[in-house]
């Protein structure tokens, strides 16, 4: 897929370029490749991975604290 930087176009060409876009191209232009539920699942999985990492760090912290108290 080719890309056109808007700042490379003259102002009269910018307006014509934006007017000629269809819906799929407009969605891609504003940051979404397609309206797919997989993107929502991907966001949820990344959130769960973050929570798991925080839990792991907290567990390691508590284990080291118990070892220090034991010694």
Structural write-up:
The chain has 71 residues and is mostly helical. The protein is 70% helix and 0% strand. It contains 3 helices and no strands. The chain has helices spanning 11-19, 23-29, 37-70. The longest helix has 34 residues, at 37-70. The mean pLDDT is 76.
Short description, anyone?
This protein has about 70 residues and is an all-alpha fold.
Outline the secondary-structure elements:
Elements: H1 11-19, H2 23-29, H3 37-70
Sum up the structure in keywords:
mainly alpha, 71 residues, 3 helices
What would the average pLDDT be, to the nearest integer? 76
Largest sheet: none
- The amount of beta strand, in percent, is under 5%
Instruction: Provide the structure class.
Output: mainly alpha
Low-confidence stretches are: none
Question: How much is the radius of gyration in Å?
Answer: 24 Å
SSE string, helix = H, strand = E?
A: HHH
Distance between the termini: 62 Å
């Amino acid at each position: 897929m080719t890309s056109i930087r808007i700042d490379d176009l003259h102002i009269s060409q910018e307006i014509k370029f934006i007017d000629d876009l269809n819906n799929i191209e407009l969605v891609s232009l504003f940051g979404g490749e397609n309206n797919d539920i997989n993107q929502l699942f991907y966001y949820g999985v990344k959130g769960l991975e973050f929570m798991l990492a925080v839990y792991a760090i907290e567990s390691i912290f508590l284990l080291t604290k118990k070892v220090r108290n034991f010694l």
